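Example record used in the benchmark description.
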Amino acid sequence: MAASSVPARCSDSRVVGRISCGPDAFLLDVEVDYDLPELAPGVFAMLSPADGSGPELGRPFSLYDQRGRVLRFLIQVMGVGTQALAKVEVGALVTLTFPLGNGFAVESPERPVVLVAGGVGSAPFLLYARHRMQLGADANTWVLFGARTADRLYDAEGLAAAGAPMLYATDDGSRGFHGNVVQLLDQELAAGRLPRDARFCACGPE
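Model output (structure tokens):
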């Protein structure tokens, strides 16, 4: 899939859903009042409460999922901007500037792809993995997902529902490999369970 050519627009859009997905994170569903095509993975939005309760400058969030006019964002509560968004109730408005960025071109199904995510770094990869499955690339697409603890593998079941094989890593060993996701990647490459000629896509903390 090529990068999105849809022009960005700024609008006040309604929050239609909110789901907790960890001790410090949630999924925010926002419905726009205009039609959108199927967007490329990796595009992002600037989001802030429409009532001015947050910082003047919105915060950037990758598009996590899309269902027509309903956009889903994965938000970890960390600073002033995300704390303000965490207080926005279903039915309220957020100021949304979207879509921004070029997005990712999804590799052809013949090319192996390994997606490596840490924490909220999984945000751009749900759509990427789903597009790969639609291309019939389920046999050569893998998702490696790591976090400090099992409850910070944000929306792990939702990400797994895209259909790509999943491998997990947690720093405390509470789910999957005991260690960080980069160490898990090293182990799988050394064991020959992942191809070294794959396209590696990574997103997450240093």
